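Quick one: structure tokens for this chain, please?
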Amino acid sequence: MGRVRINSAWAWAVVALLLGGWLWLDLRRPVMEPGEAPKVGAALGLRTEDVTALTYRSATRTLSLARSGDRWRLTEPIQAPADAEAVTALLEELLEQPTEMLIEKPTNLARYGLATPDGEATLTAPGHPITLRLGGPDPGKGAVYAQEAASGRLLLLSSGAAASVRTKPAADLRSRKMVEAEVDQIVGLSVATPKLRWSVRRTGEEWSYATPRAGKKPDRFTVDDILFDTVATATGVAAEPPADAARYGLLRPDLRVEITLKGGGTGWLEVGGKAPGGGRYARGSAGGGAVFTLAAETFQRLSKDPAAGK
């Protein structure tokens, strides 16, 4: 009798575990109203936030992105940090649009422009890679035919989503952050120009000079402006690495900013020669060796002496 009770207990535990797993998976599915068209991601069993890599390949283009934690990187056609918001917007455009599942396994692929696909988009989530072959248009629905490679299923992608993955330049997805830091994590700041050098340290909420006016208080508003400008996004990308530093006036920069973070991390920003349109060329510790453009007024604020406001 004792053994029967033990076996029954184990059986109920297994049933509870299976039911719990089924419920967890069911709760992860998007909620749909009756008659509502499924979104592409739901039809494929793929959530935007779970995607860790995206690759598009065609005869004329390769675009590849990979995520580690919450950071995205471009791996083709260039190696560079990617703008997480821009990548997320691209994935949402692909996966969050309504779709129609048309045919499980079409036999006449030429009818849908899939005999020779225009290209293939592969989206990867943990243990869940999915490849979509992109075909011809369905003009009446403003959509493009796509086929899931593994199952052969035919579905529709919005024309806009297909155009984005087919043609969006890597430069539009590249991060333009030159220094990666949160302002509230910065505890040290130093600025050097040919005519001026100074540094400040933060204790609690208060900033004070380390050099050359040790112990004195700088103008807080000027320091804040410099901090926000240091971690701001550049206006553009002038050159990917390897960039000729001399060409952009960065062998002997007109300004160098260095920051120290809580925990001992550091970052830096250098501003060099003048760029077309009145801006400046710049590079930074998080830029991957690229040269960026910086607005002229940003350079002016970075060059300001915080003692001038006292």
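The helical segments are 2-28, 40-44, 84-95, 159-167, 170-173, 220-231, 296-302.
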